[in-house]
Design goal:
The structure holds 2 protein chains of 2 kinds.
Chain A lengths: L2 H4 L7 H8 L8 H8 L1 H18 L10 H8 L6 H11 L1 H23 L6 H22 L3 H4 L2 H39 L12
Helix pairs in contact in A: 2-4, 7-10, 8-10
Chain B lengths: L7 H9 L3 H23 L2 H17 L10 H23 L12 H7 L10 H10 L2 H7 L3 H12 L4 H8 L3 H18 L1 H4 L1
Helix pairs in contact in B: 1-2, 2-3, 2-4, 3-4, 4-9, 8-10, 9-10
The chains are: A mainly alpha, B mainly alpha.
Chain lengths: 203, 196
């Protein structure tokens, strides 16, 4: 604080005027002494107080009705991938469940039909499937350098199918196909997400 | 869940997780202050609505970049202010001065490119806005420079602290004080008959 600040004859600074206007204690105290004696500064404070009151009386303008709805129709919020996957799962559960029921139904009917065909022996169908699987596996293994075949994974899978029977194998393959297709579709949606639109507004 | 009872930071956090209703609540909460600030700057209801919509869209699009250490409302006002000032500056560039084209170098060229004001006074839309804006205080605020106007509205209508105004307008604290001091001086002159 300088001697100048302590001088009760100097006029108030803009900051001091504001402090008085807001009713806050002003420093230095000599300012209060000056304000009591100086008509010019007192007039300034009173004028500013009146301006404060006038400005504080101003109200907000309101936009037209349904403004929030119009805003939200244009907004796309950034959505984390986990939330997006969960939303997709919730939104698409009905078609997925319907497809699952359809595939399982078809597989069961096929199994029943196969069971009622005496000319088609279960062993023959099993042998055919087993051979196809082994051949496919062999091609994959050869393409990949023979590593997979040497580890006998494909033969183990084929032997596993033999163990659960033809109906079980059909059901298993149907379910695996469905899971693979669903997973691929979900991954495709996650890799190229469509913006999550925000439509309806309201608390 | 009643979103109206949630604080601004809670709603913003929900928005970052893609919650639509939280975003809607924030729009309801700030539509009037945002619209009012823009309307007092551009004095055109339709344009103000467009700019206010754009301000919210921009804010939500960039919500991931919002720093929670600042008030959400300050950040939203900053987006709003920048958008409005950009619009006003662009409009100024697009507008030919009534004194003629800035490229006119002779008095004849200036006269040829000058715009003569129509003697019938205000256009219907302007008259309607003037009536709506109404009070002498609003008209006096409209006479202020854009920077002064923004600062005085944020200070006295929105009740923002000087530091917040400094962040919103992206100018030093001392500049904000100067803007507000000069704005008050001009308003005191314009409204002298009301303030005595």
């Amino acid at each position: 604080m300088t001697d100048k600040d302590q001088n009760p004859d100097r006029h108030l600074t803009p900051d001091e005027v504001e402090l008085f206007t807001l009713g806050l204690p002003a420093r230095p105290r000599s300012a209060e002494t000056h304000l009591a004696a100086c008509l010019e500064c007192r007039s300034e404070v009173e004028s500013l107080q009146a301006l404060h009151r006038a400005l504080s009386s101003l109200e907000h303008f309101a936009p037209a009705a349904a403004f929030a709805e119009r805003v939200m129709a244009r907004v796309t919020l950034p959505v984390p991938w986990r939330a997006r996957a969960w939303t997709l799962a919730r939104e698409r559960w009905l078609p997925v469940a319907a497809a699952l029921v359809a595939v399982l139904g078809a597989a069961s009917l096929t199994a029943l039909w196969l069971g009622n065909q005496p000319e088609l022996s279960v062993g023959g169908v099993l042998e055919l499937m087993s051979r196809e699987v082994r051949e496919f596996g062999f091609q994959v293994v050869m393409t990949a350098g023979g590593l997979l075949w040497n580890s006998a994974i494909v033969r183990s899978v084929a032997d596993g199918i033999v163990g659960i029977g033809v109906e079980g194998a059909i059901l298993l393959l149907s379910a695996l196909s469905l899971v693979t297709i669903s997973a691929a579709a979900t991954m495709a949606r996650l890799v190229q997400p469509t913006p999550l639109r925000i439509g309806h507004a309201g608390p | 869940m009643d979103y109206r009872e949630k604080t601004d930071p809670e709603l913003v956090e929900l928005c970052k997780r893609g919650n639509e209703r939280a975003a809607t609540e924030l729009v309801h909460r700030f539509e009037r202050p945002v619209f009012s600030l823009i309307y007092r700057m551009v004095r055109d209801r339709e344009l103000s609505e467009d700019l206010a919509q754009e301000a919210f869209v921009r804010a939500f699009t960039k919500i991931g970049r919002y720093d929670p250490s600042y008030k959400f409302s300050s950040w939203l006002f900053k987006v709003t202010y920048n958008l409005t000032i950009d619009h006003l500056r662009k409009k100024r560039v697009d507008t030919v001065s009534i004194h003629g084209s800035p490229t006119a170098v002779t008095s004849e060229m200036q006269e040829a490119t000058a715009i003569t004001p129509v003697a019938t006074g205000e256009l219907p839309d302007q008259a309607l806005e003037a009536r709506e804006i109404g009070s002498e205080i609003e008209l006096a605020i409209g006479e202020l420079r854009e920077e002064y106007r923004t600062a005085i509205i944020l200070r006295h209508v929105e009740g923002r602290a000087y530091e917040e105004i400094s962040q919103i307008m992206d100018v030093p604290l001392g500049t904000v004080k100067t803007y507000i001091h000069r704005a008050r001086k001009e308003l005191q002159v314009h409204l002298q008959h009301l303030l005595t």
